[in-house]
């Protein structure tokens, strides 16, 4: 396996005013292998979202080195970084941020049409396939008021996948969903991961973390512990046992 992402001594500081600086990420080191499915847990305010934003180049670290596919991206110009994000990364958020005036399929197609010289018919075919894969092809021409939260999150996943990303970053992607929709979204993500896409999710939910294969635990801007597991296999793994072992580990680490 090779590394897709390698962060060395990442620091993020924010100036809040005169002589008032917040040190959010503190010398964080992180390596992610291609194909891994990772979750990030930790108390509220510990820096999980900031970590996700900084390793994905959505935010600028204050110091440190950040390599994505062996390329240092920490100091790239904004346009170059935006191109990397658009063409090689997918993002899924709790607030899905779909465009109101576009149909669901047009929302899925949008990132492909703004990138390079995409051919509209081919993009449309691909978007249809993604909607099929996530079970919402019948809603293609609906607008966002005509779909449930779980369905909209599937649209968000399709949109994240339209440019065949190498990695998907998710910030509480199931945070606003009921348990049934959460399970459905997780199994879609597991399928995507099985096909080789690396996934990194920030979550407060053990039911999400239990489906990942490595959990990072953050406290006060640092990764203080990591739990490595096998890739979740619904047929062979005892989910309750796995959840209990995560809970025990979280408690041991002071959560
Ligand atoms: N741009 C900013 N300006 C000021 N403070 C910030 C900024 N970004 C993050 N913070 C602060 O940094 C800390 C870490 O924020 P972050 O959102 O990364 O935490 P988190 O672990 O994801 O929290 P939660 O679980 O509540 O979403 C918080 O105290 C937050 O208020």
Q: Could you please describe the fold and organization of this structure?
A:
Helix content is 36%, strand content 27%. The strands form 2 sheets. It has a 6-stranded mixed sheet, sandwiched between helices. The protein starts with a strand and ends with a helix. Adenosine-5'-triphosphate (ATP) binds next to strand 2 and helix 1. Adenosine-5'-triphosphate binds next to strand 2 and helix 1.
Provide a brief overview of the structure.
The chain has eight helices and ten strands. The protein has helices spanning 48-55, 78-88, 104-114, 120-133, 149-161, 179-194, 206-209, 239-252, and strands spanning 3-17, 20-33, 37-41, 63-68, 71-72, 89-93, 167-171, 198-202, 214-219, 222-228. It is an alpha/beta fold.
Strand proportion, as a percent range, falls in 25-35%
Radius of gyration: 18 Å
What's the rounded overall pLDDT mean?
94
Number of strands: 10
CATH topology: Rossmann fold
> Strand order across the biggest sheet?
6-7-8-3-9-10
Largest sheet data: 6 strands, mixed
Q: How many H/I helical runs? A: 8
Oligomeric grouping of the chains? single chain
Residue ranges: pLDDT <50 for 5 or more in a row? none
Compressed to H and E, one letter per element, the order equals EEEHEEHEHHHEHEHEEH
Query: Helices and strands: which structural class?
Result: alpha/beta
């Amino acid at each position: 396996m090779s590394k897709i992402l390698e962060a060395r001594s990442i620091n993020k500081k924010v100036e809040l005013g005169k002589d008032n600086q917040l040190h959010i990420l503190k010398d964080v080191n992180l390596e992610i292998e291609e194909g891994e499915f990772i979750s990030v847990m930790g108390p509220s305010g510990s820096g999980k979202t900031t970590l996700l934003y900084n390793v994905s180049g959505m935010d600028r670290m204050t110091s440190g080195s950040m390599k994505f596919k062996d390329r240092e991206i920490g100091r790239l110009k904004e346009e170059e970084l935006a191109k990397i994000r658009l063409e090689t990364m997918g993002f899924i958020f709790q607030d899905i941020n779909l465009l109101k005036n576009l149909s669901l399929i047009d929302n899925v197609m949008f990132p492909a049409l703004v990138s390079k010289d995409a051919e509209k018919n081919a993009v449309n075919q691909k978007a249809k396939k993604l909607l099929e894969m996530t079970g919402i092809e019948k809603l293609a021409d609906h607008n966002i008021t005509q779909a449930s939260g779980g369905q909209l999150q599937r649209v968000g996943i399709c949109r994240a996948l339209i440019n065949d990303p190498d990695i998907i970053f998710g910030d509480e992607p199931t945070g606003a969903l009921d348990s049934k929709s959460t399970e459905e979204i997780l199994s879609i993500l597991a399928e995507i991961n099985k096909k080789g896409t690396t996934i990194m999710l920030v979550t407060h939910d053990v039911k999400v973390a239990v489906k990942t294969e490595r959990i990072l635990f953050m406290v006060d801007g640092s990764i203080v512990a990591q739990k490595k597991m096998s890739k979740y296999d619904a047929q062979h793994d005892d989910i309750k046992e796995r959840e209990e072992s995560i809970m025990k580990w979280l408690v041991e680490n002071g959560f």
